[in-house]
Amino acid sequence: ENEVAPDPTLDDHFDVKNRKVESHRIAYGTQKSDVWLEISLTAPDQLCQRIAWQLYKIFATSNNSNSATQLSEANLQVFDNHVNGCYGTYKDMIKRVSFNEEMASQLTFLNNQAVATAWHRSGHRKKKAWPDENYARENLQLHSIGIIRLHDDGTPILDQFGKRQANYQQKHIFTAAKVWTGLVTSRRRGNYEDLDWATTSYLDPLRITSPIKRDWFPKIDLADGYIGDRVPLCADLPEQPFLKKNARFRLLGGSTDALSSYPSRKSGPDEEFRRYSLEGGSALYTELCNPKSGVTEPTTTLTAGTATATHDSALGAPTCLGRASKCDSGTTLEGRRVEANSPNTLDDCLDGDDTTVYDDDESVKKIVVETISGNDLRGGEQVTLKATAFVLSKSDRVDYYYAADATNPDWKHLTSMAPPQGESVLEFEYERRPEVVYRLPQCLSPDGCKQAVRVVLRSSRDPANPVSGRKDSGGYYLDPNEPCPTTTPYHDIDDLSFDVLPSYRPQDLCDFQTTVTLTSNLACTGLECTLDTLGVFEVEAGVHYEYIEPKCVHMPFYENAAKVFAEWSNQIVMCADKRTPSAMATCVSSGSSDRHPSSTNWADVLSNFREEKLTYAQNTERCSDWAHRAVGDPQRIGPYSGRTGHCNYYKNCMDVRGTRDNMVDSHYHWTDDSCEIKVKVDKDGMIAIVHQPANTQDWKRWGSSDPPFVQSHVDIDETVSYFFVQWESTSEVGRLNYPNVEENACDGGTADATYCVCTTSVSETAVFTGPELPSRQQIMSALKVGAFDPDIFDDGTFTLLAGSTEEVAVYKNATDPTDYTVNTIIRIKDTFGQDIFLKNVL
Asked: Is the pTM higher than 0.85?
């Protein structure tokens, strides 16, 4: 924060020392104190310096507690935190201090982790270690409210018996410790003093790099509620929230690593990691690109050409010369092995070597590449890739590849398709986008670039029975990562090369902003209308933005839960909330043309980009868009080996994985089976969440006679993630207010050793019923569930009720018969004049 370049004309630089350099022989501890004293006494912002000193005495740390005591800049940053926040809020100051490496090291919450982290990953030697409570206790006792409740004048608040009242109990420390889990140091970077042998940054704030160590279960607050009260529910987000008012985006540039969410295992500049690319001209593209006017076309020597390819003997494949909006192979690819100028590949990859001509002889007949915009083929343009082929069997597969350099092709797999039998222009059975679409690689040469595409038809024909036989090791089961397959004599491989104009520089086309916040709702375009979230996505070639998810709360209990499963088979199961984007799009084909008749209980992963997650409703619609499939409860994903069959859109099979040890590393898939959420109550009244998914199909784990595993974190026998809840008080003296095996025989629940297992249900009641407008005090006292600003919903979704005031405004949901229901949103002002939106529900 507030970093500036050094001024070499001034003697204001730090002396530094590490293994490779020592600028001066000094006492480094003295340097820190000398710099601090000089600034504290002579800086023009003396009020701020004195406030910072008082804050430093409250949030006391010592550089003796960290492993970089000799670093001047990193240790002075501890005090600079107080200076930078001297006129801010105390809440902001606590955050600054808490995310400082020195505080985290001194009060031992650095690398703190949830109890489930080690327990579920320690195999048969179970290790149960609760989060370190040191900072949780110090934060309550020394940094904020103190041990005893006080009046505003500092005198203690007494109870009815004249005794002082405690601000918190041990259960609150136990709970607060879970908040400080998952925090690790930032990575070393440039532009500041640091140790050359360290990979750790002692200057930058702590970060959460993975939720693996986080405790994500509910946490009680110090009153009668929970941390997260008055925060909106994630389940209440509108469709396409990334297109709504106040949606926020961060520019990542050439990086594809998310900064605000858990990064994918496959993050990085990998062309095969298919992220979503905005369609040029969409409303969101216009907002993020902020197109410049008067853009000059890059200089080029390419002249106008034809859109029809002729054979290029030097390259060995059909080629389109000159600038054009498309390239069509024409008749140059007809046949297999007997085609003219065989093999028609840039790298001499041969077709299958069987020369027998059958009545039904599989072959690629034509390839066409064409820009979506109608502009000439140019690096960075989005294009469609179409192939015409004759396909023998529904078990055959067609793979699509591209190469940035036709003279030295490095083939990148785009996607694979399950084609229909017979001759046709091949398309996905996806109503929203049947074509194969990709972005042409960048071209930096003014002479243009020769790029290429490849289409591979993998045959499933059995050499032992070539007329009607199907071989299990044929196209249906082969890995599409091999651009030149040789396993059967019936494959057909063909290439098409074409000239591409030099790319525009993205900064010449767009005026990119570091952060963008939408000021109004936008209309969706094309595939945007089918998405529930975006994550990291591409705006222009090589330029990425990250959609920053809005702050919201996932409820641990909900009605109408669905079973979801992870791994290739129905191996690991748990519950999911249908209203949130919790799982990947998974559809059962039930005899569709791309499914072998013996595999109707296998499912496709049908995503618009890798690792896409969506709601149950959107998944149902997605299945319908893909040739009227159904959600179902599949036995497994795809065929026997990974990435080979029915995750046939942008390699989505690579995302099929699961582990019981770590829920975050499991990618779940929707099913239409039900799931029950229960609680396991221990003798002290703490609860753990238990999921009991249905198994209507009686599926077994692959290769086993046992039913699927339940995810460990919510398994009735494996869970250790217990947390305190706010039980309703009982009026009966001496009676526990929660189910207990010995005291009340689980109060209607089921006894499990010393635990009680109870069913759950969720009921919602409108708090205010009208017609009188409730007061601000009544609202603050009664409403605990947050809501989103009604302005982010589509026009007409909410209506402002007559009688609303500047202090209290009531918004009626247009679908409700009365003004005040559980869907009603009420707006009030907080003590700083900021809007708070609350849901009228208990």
From this structure: yes
